[in-house]
Amino acid sequence: MLVPPGVYTVKLVAGDVERTAPLTVRKDPNTTGTEDDVVAQTAMMVQIRGNMNTAAKRINDAESVRSQIAVWKVVVGEGEPMKALRAAADALDSRIVAVEAGLFNITATGRGQDQLRTSSQMVEKVSHLSDVVSYADFAPTDSQLQVGASLTREVAHDRELMDGILSRTVATFNATLRERQDGSIVVPTGK
User: Fold this and answer.
1) Which SS3 state, helix, strand or coil, does residue 55 take?
2) Ramachandran class of 181: left when φ > 0, alpha when ψ lies in -120 to 50, beta otherwise
3) In this predicted structure, what is the pLDDT of residue 105?
4) Domain range spanning residue 70?
């Protein structure tokens, strides 16, 4: 990510040798945007990056748990004693998918028609906002700020939903698995 104009300290480490020096970053002289514009743009890009990281973390966590559920179902088989537990696993997977599908297009094929088949999801919306905000050295427009604030609220809501499912619902499922000595699902940790 680019940084706004200012004086920074750079550090070079080579083996046991460490050097620091000041570095002055100047505004591009070919742009009509002001230094304050670049500072505002950078602040919004940091917010956008945070939203993208939050969404990506929830997607990765969801995929980790869903893959464990799929493997668990293969291991336990389809016998009658496992019918209720498999139904609980399917319900858990469905709850995760309901939130995850709002974060990104889980049905994407990688072909050119994906955008025509499904509406943009959170990752695509945040990515598009990043593109338009970073296009030139100008402060974000009022509408870009409003969209950014709206997306930040939506990402926070999706985070709460996914974190709730992954903490409480998986814990309940794991308690049932422990009672039956049928393994457990590991929920990724960290922010």
Assistant:
1) helix
2) left
3) 82
4) 32-180
Tell me, yes or no, whether 188 lies in a domain.
Answer: no
How far is Cα 61 from Cα 188, in angstroms, rounded to an integer?
6
CA 149, CA 155: separation in Å to the nearest integer?
A: 10
- The percent of the chain in helix, strand and coil, each rounded to the nearest 5, is 65, 10, 25
Dump pLDDT digits (tens) for 74-130. 988 888 878 889 999 999 999 999 999 999 887 765 666 656 566 678 999 999 999
89, part of any domain? yes
Q: Is residue 76 in some structural domain?
A: yes
CA distances for 20 relative to 8, 13, 14, 15, 25, angstroms: 10, 9, 12, 14, 16
Q: Using an 8 Å Cβ cutoff, are 148 and 44 in contact?
A: yes
> Tokens for 8?
């920074």
- The residue-averaged pLDDT of 140-164 equals 96
Question: Do the Cβ atoms of 91 and 165 come closer than 8 Å?
Answer: no
- Determine the Cα angle at 132 with ends 131 and 137, to 5°: 100
The mean pLDDT of 38-54, rounded to a whole number, is: 95
Give the model confidence (pLDDT) of 23-43 as tens digits. 999 988 888 889 899 999 999
For the entire predicted model, the pTM comes to 0.84
What torsion do the CA atoms of 53, 42, 3, 122 make, to the nearest 10 degrees? 20
Report the number of distinct structural domains present in the chain.
1
Any domain includes 20:
no
